[in-house]
Write a structure and sequence with these properties.
Chain lengths: 596, 164
């Protein structure tokens, strides 16, 4: 029995900022102080507040230390763990009131509006120890399903809960299972999409790293419901920690008889294999993912036949994403009414978002559906840094769109996001401020789709390329107004005619920015001006004669020797030589250099 | 994209070949074995030159064009050798809006190579990648397994110097 547990985040964010070294130092210091029998160090998954990593929580008081450095460890051990005195300077400052009182983490702005279902164990348990998962009610849902429920009851329960797929399109999960169950076959498959390809989204990775057993348990439940004995998890090779923890989890579950033959002595067999994705965005599309598991080029197939009829290896199959699965054991245990009591009319439960970009609290948040964008960005996210103005929030990644300030108060759910030209996607939410050019962002996403288009169908392969060429012309200032019409026409053509979701949604970033930021496109074309000051070809740098002190710092740092001037006299920039790198603006101490 | 080191001839060892054959023998009968085997081969050789792809094709009885089709479809499979230090800059959305494009340009300028290439001495290779999932540290780059976050272009020369 330990008197104190120290939880150190071992998620990718915190590992990248050095949590492994912190854990080692912590263990050494604890030993040095003779506390090894009293204090336990536990490596957990992600707490969500990645911006402040590495994160460490000391229980039983749940003292929350943020941005901990290796040098801080001796002090934490000797002061807090030995003498019981909290090291106030290292506390997450939101947990300290102005009067110096410490408040609970759940009362801070970042956490108080959150409701963690899919992430409930992340940051709480050690993901590499199955007993910790079982200790929080893990595998109880599987036991209940196998011993007390028929497959049809399981499916009905999911239908009643209103759970919709968390991977993007929001298809009702219960319905997907029902369709697969109806099709008779000697073998069926349960697949898990853990190939989180949307750049800027990392909720699935966090769940796999922080609570892998929840996914395994839900897949076994799915296997029972549709009549499958084999599951596959298709996980990105770029997520080494997640892959490793899944391997450990599958091994432990087999050892405990929770995967394999005759689970819970009910005669039900189910096992899971891992398949590593090899870096192709299109493999997030269900038929492409299944083709890839078969060991082929991950190209999508026309539907019908739908995977519920002919999926992996030609057998009836279902595919759900990681976050969807992570919700299922809780829905079984707490009942469909509990789940359906959260959210909006057509979108039930919660959704995990990865907050990123120009926002204070970057990280993972899980909020009830129907929370407004304003609450997410201003309250939970802590607003925009550096006093800048909010411009747009991008959701849905390369398939989604940019939401402008005028829709700040819209409740977030599947249908509302689609109605304003974006989509839920897997839950990336990137905040942009006045310094971001919307044409440049649209071009950024098109570059992505052009590179990731598999090439099978013409509208997507050639159409997106043509769109990118037009966007390139616009950002270089060589486009004419007719190009804008052509761009829009192409958007609708590609949406209508592409084979799979990748092509059908590829024009969304362009369409949504055209809808809300058309004037910015027009400024590029008509005035040859980039209002946000991003598109290099349309910018020039100048020195304000009145502000320049002639310190020569800019001239000395200019990589192109484009700045001319003598000491104590105003300098000028030679526009022919200038490569517009912006070094001079960064270096100038007097704010004398500006771009226009 | 052409690699400036592409003239480097293939030099596989007997041990590597034995390891590959063992891996093929082990995985051959599992459904959809081709990709796991190619991933294993890349682990063994560091990349997938045509010689290795031919070996896989012969051992598995799968036509070479099928193997080549798979190896060129996925970004993870490299047909050219990578540098001793593999640099990958995250150009995911969260990093991009925080300026990872400028980090990438700085590396191109300092190393004299572009996306997918490696330096003539075989020391550094440069790739862009999509989201390493460390968005809280944006902009981020990785050199082998080491992650560097919250970068500004001026940090780059100092970081490269550590590897020289």
């Amino acid at each position: 029995m330990y008197r104190s547990h120290v939880l150190v985040c071992g998620g990718t964010g915190c590992t990248s900022s050095g949590s492994q070294q912190i854990m080692e130092t912590l263990k050494k210091e604890i030993e040095k102080n003779g506390l090894s029998d009293e204090v336990a160090v536990v490596q957990t998954g992600c707490h969500g507040l990645c911006a402040l990593g590495p994160i460490m929580i000391v229980y039983p008081d749940a003292t929350f230390y943020s941005m901990v450095k290796v040098e801080d460890i001796p002090e934490i051990v000797s002061e807090h763990l030995l003498k019981g005195r909290v090291v106030t300077r290292l506390l997450y400052k939101e947990t300290v009131s102005p009067a110096g009182k410490i408040k609970a983490l759940s009362d801070t702005d970042f956490y108080k509006k959150q409701h963690r279902i899919a992430l409930r164990n992340c940051g709480i348990i050690n993901p590499e120890v199955i007993d910790e998962y079982i200790g929080t009610g893990g595998y109880e849902a599987l036991g209940k399903v196998l011993t007390e429920m028929t497959p049809d009851e399981v499916i009905q329960l999911l239908l009643d809960s209103g759970l919709r797929g968390r991977g993007g399109a929001g298809f009702p999960t219960g319905l997907k299972w029902k369709l697969a169950k109806q099709n008779e076959a000697d073998q069926k498959y349960v697949c898990c999409n853990a190939d989180e390809g949307d750049p800027g989204a990392f909720m699935d990775r966090s769940i796999l790293e922080g609570d892998p057993h929840a996914v395994l348990e839900a897949m076994a439940i799915a296997g029972y419901a549709i009549g499958a004995s084999q599951g596959y998890i298709y996980v990105r090779a770029e997520y080494p920690i997640a892959v490793e923890r899944l391997r450990i989890a599958i091994g432990q579950a087999r050892e405990y008889g929770l995967l394999g033959k005759n689970i819970f002595d009910t005669g039900f067999d189910f096992d899971i294999d891992l398949r590593l994705g090899a870096g192709a965005f299109v493999c997030g599309e269900e038929t492409a993912l299944m083709t890839s598991i078969e060991g082929k080029r991950g190209e999508p197939r026309p539907r019908p036949p739908f995977p519920a009829q002919k999926g992996l290896f030609g057998k009836p199959s279902i595919l759900n994403n990681v976050e969807t699965y992570a919700n299922i054991p809780q829905i079984i245990l707490n009942g469909p009414e509990w789940f359906a009591s959260m959210g909006t009319e057509k979108s039930k439960g919660t959704k995990v978002f990865a907050l990123g970009g120009k926002i204070h609290n970057t990280g993972l948040v899980e909020i009830p559906m129907g929370t407004t964008l304003r609450e997410v960005i201003e309250e939970i996210g802590g607003g925009i840094p550096n006093g800048k103005k909010f411009k747009a929030a991008q959701t849905g990644g390369p398939s989604g769109g940019c939401i402008p300030a005028e829709h700040f108060d819209i409740p977030i759910d599947y249908d509302n996001l689609i109605s304003i030209g974006s989509m839920m996607g897997s839950g990336g939410l990137i905040v942009m401020d006045e310094d971001d050019c919307m044409v440049d962002i649209a071009k950024f996403f098109l570059e992505f789709t052009v590179e990731e288009s598999c090439g099978k169908c013409t509208p997507c392969r050639i159409g997106t390329k043509r769109m990118l060429e037009i966007l390139d012309k616009i950002t270089k200032g060589t486009a004419v107004m007719e190009d804008l019409d052509k761009l829009e026409e192409l958007c609708y053509y590609i949406k209508e005619n592409s084979l799979c979701g990748l092509g059908q949604t590829a024009p969304n970033p362009v369409l949504s920015t055209l809808r809300y930021f058309r004037s910015e496109y027009e400024a590029h074309i008509k005035e040859k001006r980039c209002p946000a000051g991003v598109c290099k070809a349309l910018l020039s740098y100048h020195i304000d004669r009145d502000k320049c002190k002639g310190c020569t710092l800019c001239a000395r740092n200019c990589p192109a020797d484009a700045i001319i001037g003598t000491v104590k006299n105003p300098h000028i920039i030679d526009q022919d030589k200038c490569i517009k790198c912006g070094t001079c603006i960064e270096k100038c101490k007097f704010g004398a250099i500006y771009k226009r | 994209m052409a690699c400036k080191k592409s003239t480097v001839p293939f030099s596989g060892t007997k041990e590597q070949e034995a390891a590959l054959k063992a891996a093929i023998a082990e995985l051959k009968d599992t459904p959809g074995a081709l990709m796991p085997i190619m991933q294993k081969a890349q682990e063994i050789y560091g990349y997938l030159p045509i010689e290795v792809q031919t070996m896989i094709s012969d051992e598995m009885g799968i036509p070479l064009e099928k193997v080549y089709g798979v190896s060129t479809f996925y970004a993870q499979f490299a047909l050219q050798p990578k540098g001793k230090y593999k640099i990958s800059v995250c150009l995911g959305t969260a990093c991009y809006v925080k300026g990872s494009g400028n980090i990438f340009s700085k590396l191109e300028e300092l190393l004299g190579i572009t996306n997918g290439e490696c330096t003539p001495d075989g020391k550094f290779s440069l790739d862009s990648c999509r989201c390493v999932g460390a968005c809280g540290l944006a902009p981020v780059m990785m050199i082998n397994d080491e992650v560097y976050g919250r970068l500004v272009p001026d940090d780059i020369p100092g970081i490269l110097a550590k590897y020289n």
